[in-house]
Design brief:
By secondary structure, this protein is of the alpha/beta class. The protein is built from twelve helices and 14 strands. The structure holds 1,4-dihydronicotinamide adenine dinucleotide and magnesium ion. Its cofactor is Mg(2+); Mn(2+).
Amino acid sequence: MKKRIVLLPGDGIGKEVINSAQDVLNAIAEEFNHSFTFETHEIGGAAIDLYGTPLPETTVDACKQADAVLLGAVGGPKWDNNPSHLRPERGLLGIRKALDLFANLRPIKGFKNLLHASPLKEEVVAGSDLLIVRELTGGIYFGTPSERRDNGQTVVDTLAYTRKEIERIVDKAFQAAQGRSGHLTSVDKANVLESSKMWREIVEEKKAQYPDVVVEHVLVDAAAMKLITNPTKFDVIVTENMFGDILSDEASVLTGSLGMLASASLSEDGVGLYEPVHGSAPDIAGKGIANPSAMILSAALMLRYSFQLNDEATLIEDAVQSVLDSGFHTADLHIPEGRQVGTEEMTRLIVDYIKSQN
Ligand code: NAI
Ligand code: MG
């Protein structure tokens, strides 16, 4: 398979961990006879410094023409006092909008050997492995009117969804469930909200198209509780924008380290964008100690969702787990009796595992 991948390193540790993802993808290409070509473009602070804008047109055009995009992270103290149109984060929001990335997928896994890193009890977290599919471009964060009225005595926000917006995110979730254990939990507030009633109707309608997927509906308040009392009950969770925002942050405590969390942002037929959940980590940037796992696991998601290369994606995930199992870890993690390594060595260990398995 031949694919063109745009790399957007961004700032801080983004520049370091993107190299790790590229090394891992090169190893996968070699082992499976694929051809991946890479093109690097600027975003965020790096783009501000070079071109005076956080999102140059050349970057947007390159992303639109690519088969997939990998993004490191943006931001840093250097640009913190810039006016808002010259903030690095504008680049990130801009590219999500330009590529119509309506589906945000965040896999959350309690990695063996890291279970003690979670504030939750090890026996609760053990075996948890779930995927949150969040609608990213609709709902209450985008609805209008959103304003104050009556001299500030009344305030209104609007939760609006079109049928098409719900159908496309629900389809993505069903497809993701087919690629996993085939269990989908749809989270809503259908006992109160009209938008949730339609959400639930659409999930029920879609079921017929995906007979191999088992569907369950859970109200969001109950889901919030079950996520941390019984996380192993879940596989794929699909929900609207605000519920997904809250539940995905809640669920991230299952892993205990930002350096392990990957994400995918997908559009309908266009290009997907893959990035770690963490930021540019200015406190450790340039030291060669950043955990590359979140970025590498994001590259695995790219193989799975943009290129349908499931075996290759799974091999990368197994490689990360295996290296942790052997006790190797970066400075952000702690494994009792393990050995601490830097970004490059962690990457090399993951690459070596990939080469030894295929
Ligand atoms: P951060 O995620 O960059 O760092 C939080 C803490 O976690 C730091 O102590 C950092 O050293 C550590 N950390 C994060 N990723 C790590 C990794 N891979 N390996 C080892 N340690 C890691 O969040 P923070 O400090 O709030 O923000 C720093 C900058 O990043 C800000 O400019 C912020 O706006 C930006 N940011 C960008 C994001 C993005 O590009 N998607 C997301 C979050 C923040
Ligand atoms: Mg959030």
